[in-house]
Design goal:
11 helices; alpha/beta; globular
């Protein structure tokens, strides 16, 4: 099932400088990372998916419904977006109220909304902070509040914009766990990222944006094997992939376990 279909999509802010040009993409069940340098059009693209911007030309279909036929409020039932900066998203004075706002706003009852909010806060590790003011918490915790706010809405599509920003090792591991759980539960997970190591470990598919166009789109291992094309988009391979190449291995490794297993097997056979 194609949860999202993007057809001949272009977008300009009206100054004749095209931000996105002629994009054709489909998103199904694969976890998908969107990577590229600042200015490549990534955030603009996900804002178009969410209905926060309107295409200059072309169409976006969510569950076979053209987004031009729906308001951003109605699209909120289908697709959730975690903003890059949590301060752009948080506006309530209590954590529980912040996380309940989304489900309440799309029609869930008070009881359902509270249940979903508590479940989401447990998932992000903030169940003990329900009565705190979000702005009394750290940046990484506020980021997790915005994640919980979107999870509580129970949408089938969840988009993360730079989720690892401000997160330490523990926070990143929590995000990996959340994304894998969402995928296991049949949700479509899309994320904009600059953290190539995180991309390599979590995402099945990677799309490279460059100057408003799709430079590469494929399974993550294949994308990270194309060193020269990555350089053309001013991107590096994941650290473990680089280490594998420096050791003289031809394979493209996406995590440390893969590299170690391969190195050990070569040692045994030698």
């Amino acid at each position: 099932m194609n949860l999202i279909r993007v057809q001949d999509l272009s977008f300009s802010y009206g100054d004749n400088q095209m931000i996105l040009q002629g994009l054709n993409l489909e998103f199904t069940e694969q976890t998908t990372a969107i990577i590229g340098q600042n200015g490549a059009g990534k955030t603009t693209f996900v804002k178009l998916l969410k209905g926060l911007l309107t295409p200059s030309s072309g169409d976006i279909f969510i569950n076979n419904i053209n987004t031009k036929e729906l308001t951003a409020a109605k699209l909120a039932k289908y697709i959730g977006l975690v903003f890059q900066n949590p301060n752009d998203q948080i506006f309530k004075s209590k954590v529980i109220d912040e996380v309940m706002f989304g489900p309440l706003n799309i029609g869930y009852s008070e009881k359902e909304s509270k249940e979903y909010a508590i479940e989401a806060l447990e998932l992000v590790g903030l169940s003990g902070e329900v009565d705190r003011n979000p702005y009394d918490l750290s940046l990484s915790q506020r980021k997790m509040i915005t994640v919980a706010s979107v999870l509580a809405m129970q949408t089938n599509i969840i988009i993360f914009d730079e989720p690892t920003m401000g997160q330490d090792y523990e926070g990143k591991e929590k995000l990996k766990e959340i994304m894998r759980r969402l995928h296991h539960n049949g949700k479509l997970v899309i994320s904009i990222l600059h953290d190539m190591d995180f991309v390599a470990e979590v995402f099945e598919r990677t799309i490279v944006f460059n100057r408003g166009r799709v430079l590469m789109d494929g399974d993550t291992r294949s994308v990270f094997s194309k060193v020269e094309m990555l350089k053309g988009a001013y991107l590096d391979q994941p650290f473990v992939t680089q280490v594998g190449k420096q050791l003289g291995f031809a394979d493209t490794f996406l995590n440390v376990d893969e590299l170690v297993e391969y190195a050990v097997s070569r040692e045994i056979h030698n």
